[in-house]
Structure formats: structure tokens, C-alpha cells
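Re: weekly structure request thread

Next one in the queue (436 aa):
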Amino acid sequence: MDRNAIGLLLLAGIIALGCIAAGCTGTEEAAPADSTPPAGEGTASPDDVAESISNVTDGNNRFALDLYRQISSDPAYAGRNIFFSPYSISSALAITYEGARGTTADEIRSVLSLPADDTIRRQGFAALNAGLNRGSDNYTLRIANALWAEETHRFLPDYTEVAEQWYGANVTNLDFVSDAEGSRETINRWVEEKTEDRIRDLLPPGSIDSITRLVITNAIYFKGDWVREFNPDETTDEEFRVSPEKTVTVPMMHMTDEEAIYPYTETDTLQVLEMPYAHGNETGISMIVLLPKDENLTALEEALDADTIAELRDSLVEQRVRVVFPKFRLETGYTLSQILADMGMPAVFSVDADLSGMDGTDMLFVNEVYHKAFVDVNEEGTEAAAATGVVVSIKGAPGGDTTPVFRADHPFVFLIVERDNGTILFAGRVVNPVSQ
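Done, posted below.
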């Protein structure tokens, strides 16, 4: 697959026992989603599947970088570390989009850069999830989606069948009306299980109440070892420049011997390093680090887009590099409704929301989108997890040696990507490795 055509960047959900019964689906008719399998489903050609994956990946990567820029430019996050999974967020919102209509659908599709063609979009997500969940003997990668429905609310079979068939999101009935807190705890326990307890309390107290009708969730978990592990004996405490006026002491890992061969490139203003994870003969995963030479992280962030990342990735050449890289561990949490509205999709969060494709009424809107992420980078490798919850409620509710030296001792951006097609699973920045 052409790496230039794909782009790059970041990371997914919930499974539950399918229960499309009278309590969670109904017979009301609306302008339905096309739940009929696309022509050739099950017999789609490899080229068709590859094109679908490429389209979904390209859209995810554009959304990933757009969201990164939106968060990084928000005064509320000035000087703070950032880490999130764009693939988790786009997966949950793609399922939301399947039930949206009119302006609401147009805005979601535009912000997420989703393929407008139902076959391409659905086939792309289904194939991507199947490929990513295939995993490897060398690393762990899991992605899951689910719908959690109020047991007395009637959802259209067309909607729930699309969610199950194409996104693997089965429906589980819960009692939001009389047991909102118990329902919240059930969903959070599922997220904890799917993320090896790395994502806790995705849905905070009060996020579910008696007017909640649906929660759409996605969870993603990754754990992998570096192809070239760092020697813990060579890790030393060194200074990391948070800013020209401030430094902190952090454990810095070193890979500087003759075996330190990595995909690497640089421009006048930027160094780019790719550190692959062990994968055997399966799908490759790697971390790509973007390190500004002049320590101007803002200029780098403002210039980030999918095309630039794809070009940089395509220019990587394996060579010896002296790598000095910090150990770090980040835990982040975001409420995304205002951020996504500012990016161009306000309707779904307002009384003007049209989610009639879900239940045949105009009474539903998205109350909030919750997202949490975790990453731990050390000598052995990386563990990363994220989860997204979309809460749907009833309206009206509340010189010399020329070997490059890659010394990441100042703020940098990093991505965890699927190497073959460039899908960005996770994205983040490190401003201060010793701060959460």
C-alpha cells in the first residue's frame, strides 16, 4: 500500500452480549441507515478492501492531527502533556454518525473526515478492526466497540444491526432510569477489563442519569516490546529542558552502540525517528517521534498535517542513530464536546441534533464525549490504552562523527502507528516527562 496516500497518526471500545430485543429495538420507521450488506460483502476483492482501509485511515489521520492542533492550542492545555487515541474517538463517533441525519451527520462526517460512501466507510472500519485485532505473538493489540442501551427505549433495528455487523458493537440493555449509578459502574468495569485496568472511571460520577438513553463506547489496548530494547543499566538521570528557563531531572535511556539502526530523517528544523516494536511476521507497530531542532514545539504543532507526516514517514532511511530518550508515563482525560463543537460539529451537542437514525425520533442528542488515555514508555517497550464514551440523552435534559544524535531532552511530539498502512493509533506530546 502506498504510504504517501495513507498519511499517519494515532488510537479504541466495548464488547457486550448482543441483545436486540423488544427493550432495546423497535419497529418505528425513519430514514434508516442502509443495514443491507454492501454488494459483494464477504467476497470483496483485496483491492476494494485496501481502498476502503486507505480511505478510513486517511480520514482518521486527518482528524487525529486536527484534534491534536485543537487541543494543543487550547489555553486550558498550555504547557501540559497531551496524549489521546484518535482512532478510539473516531471509532465511537463513526458509530454515532451511523444514526445521524441532515446537518448533524454532515458536520460529524466533515470533522472526522469520514468517507461519505457507506460501503467504503463501513468496510474500511470493519477491515481495519479485524486486522488490528489479529495481533501478533510479539505484541498485544485489542480494539472493541459496544452499545449500552436504556432497556425501555426502542432503537431501530437498522441502526443496531449496522453497529453490530460493521463495528462489532453489540447491544447490552441497562437500566439508566432507575439504576444510573449501577449502569455507569457496569460500563466502567468493562472498560477496565478491556484495557487491563489502565483506564478507570471513564464515565465520571453524574455522567449517566435517568435521561441517558445510549452510551457508545470504544476501548483500545496495546503492549509491545521494542525491536531494540534499551539496557536499563545505561539509563541515567539527566536534565530535560521544559522551557528555556526551566529544566527537570528525568531518567534518560540510551541506545548508542553499533546496533542502533533506526529509520531516521531530518529537515532544517526537525528530526524524525521511528522506533519499531517487535512484531514477527504480523502487522508492524512503531512509535514515530518528531523532535524540533530549535525547541520550538509550537511551530511544529502548527505545521502538522497528514500530508506532511506522510512525506516525512516516506523519507525515513534506516541508519545508525545515537538515541537518548526519556522514560515517561502519562495519564490523561478529556471531555470533548466543546472541543469537537469548536472544530465544526456543534449540532450533535445541541437541541438541533438529528439522531433520528437511532430511534426514529428527533429527541436524542449527544450530552458529552468522554476520553481517557494511558501510556508507559520504558526500556522494554510501551504500554498504551484509551477509551471513549459517547453519552446520548433525551433533549431538554442537564564535526567529526557524523552519526546523528537524537537527544529528546526537550518537548516533543510522538505517534504510535500501524506501520503497514500508517493508521495513527495514539498521538501525544511530552512537555514534562515527570508530570502527569
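The first helix runs from residue 3 to 6. The chain has eleven helices and 17 strands.
Next request, please.
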